Amino acid sequence: MNENIILSDCNEEHIQLFKENPNVELYLMAEHICKIYNINVDELISKRRYDPLPFARHTFIKLSFSTHRFSKSALGRYLSNRNHATIISSLKAHDDLIKYNKPYQKKFDEILQSIRTTQTQSQCN
Prior knowledge:
globular; mainly alpha; 125 residues; 72% helix
């Protein structure tokens, strides 16, 4: 994990929950998303709402919920103690964006490709 990340908007308990999670794949997924959106992990889990943070969070929530089956409450706790209803709203927003927003679709596809490439490389090593 990247030890240089400064998680300024989050309290220490949430930071530790995110950074020390035994599921490293979840953290790596966050890093892939952040790389494509050109943001930091601290921005992803912060309460800030300026572009492109909501789009990055929608992507993170969708992939985390779909691939790792985290509960909505657990994902909310990861993301600066958000309510499970916020996670439900984000999942719905993702579905709408995938249908109607071509730039979002393109970034989502880039992230999936990046994750697949990394998984393939790690399986070969």
